[in-house]
Write a structure and sequence with these properties.
single chain; 182 residues; mainly alpha; Four Helix Bundle (Hemerythrin (Met), subunit A); two-stranded antiparallel sheet; 4 helices
């Protein structure tokens, strides 16, 4: 009668483990870069063609103006970059004029995405960058869109699943919407 050899668990060679870890890191970065591009697309739509009076629109004395919200998003993106560099710093910026604040938003997105695209290791996990400054920024873009509607200048709804969002496209020039609705 033949005896079966007892199976033993083998650990993967160190090289395979390192490759798997590197692949997971690359995948996390790729998803984070796509999320940053999504932030640029949705944020661009929220700030584009806002009425001249929109920056100072306020629904109550206890709420932020759109300019204050956008300045906060700029601060979040600057913070994200500092975390990625491993040199965490926070600042509360005074809002700039609307057009300057919009330019700051896109410049901060570009700088953060450029850092994510570099081969240098991140100073903070991609997951932490997502759950902190990036997710918070997405929330605030939603607030700006809501404030646009309350100010009488609504942003058209869109099926964002169909949008052409591309990692690395972080400027104000975004693809045209594929399917919008009111």
């Amino acid at each position: 009668m033949k005896r079966r050899a007892k199976r033993t668990s083998r650990s993967k060679p160190a090289k395979s483990k390192a490759k798997a870890k590197s692949s997971a890191r690359d995948s996390s970065r790729a998803l984070l870069r796509h999320t940053v591009a999504t932030l640029a697309y949705r944020g661009g739509k929220a700030v584009r063609e806002a009425p001249a009076t929109f920056a100072e629109f306020r629904i109550s004395d206890a709420t932020r103006t759109p300019a204050q919200v956008l300045a906060h998003i700029g601060d979040l993106l600057d913070w994200a970059l500092s975390l990625a560099e491993g040199k965490e710093r926070w600042r509360n910026s005074k809002p700039l004029a609307w057009d300057a604040e919009v330019a700051r938003f896109f410049a901060a997105l570009y700088a953060f995405d450029d850092r994510l695209a570099s081969p240098r290791p991140l100073g903070h996990s991609a997951e932490g960058l997502f759950q902190g400054p990036v997710a918070d920024s997405l929330t605030h873009i939603g607030q700006i869109s809501m404030l646009r509607r309350l100010a009488g200048a609504p942003v058209r709804g869109e099926n964002y699943n169909r949008a052409e969002i591309v990692a690395g496209r972080t400027g104000p020039q975004q693809s045209a919407p594929k399917f919008e609705f009111d």
